[in-house]
Amino acid sequence: MAGGVGILGGTFDPVHVAHLRAAEDAREALGLDEIRFVPAAIPPHKDPRAPVAAAARLRMLELATANVPGFRVWPVELERRGPSYSIDTLRALRTEVGPTTRVAFLLGRDAFAEFDTWKDYATIFTLCDVVVMTRPPISAPLSLADFPVATRGVFCYDAGSGSFLHESGHRVIPLSVVALDISATDIRSRLAAGRSIRFLVPPAVQAHIESNGLYRSMQAS
Fold this sequence. Notes:
Elements: E1 5-10, H1 17-30, E2 34-39, H2 54-65, E3 71-73, H3 86-97, E4 103-108, H4 109-112, H5 121-127, E5 129-134, E6 155-158, E7 163-166, E8 171-176, H6 184-192, H7 203-212
Parallel strand pairs: 1-2, 1-4, 2-3, 4-5, 5-8
Antiparallel strand pairs: 6-7, 7-8
């Protein structure tokens, strides 16, 4: 099925080229019309004391995706009060696009391993396709053993597509993306030490960080 909207959430502190490449891999592989980057205001699974303010993270995302076809920044979680729960974002998107538009929720293999700790995680499977992105060197295929225990009975493996079909008709789709060993933590550490981040982030993001002195006085967390 081609078309639809992909959602990629995160703190994006800062956004870097591995985020962008993974989103492009997903957009192309799934035939999505657009990927929406959703910066979290207060991520429930991370230290809420983000190194830079939400407005700065949003601005860097806007610079990184400006004039990129198929990429869009959606600040819906920054506009809500309280912690940023993916279930709320997906419900808001369903209200916007209706019940028939394809929605693909993108997350990494590491995040999927903790999916049973997410708010209303079982309901997420009923609202959208869940795309589990894996970067080499991880090579082990996704299996039902990787799913939250309480949900394994409502999925079956579809050998034809290599995905897992939920009783709602949505799928969990494994997707291998380009291996780029880049992390926001490492970028913050480099900046705090006065080292170069060239080619790790888009040039416009690098220029914004440097002109505003972001992360320079902070120790990486």
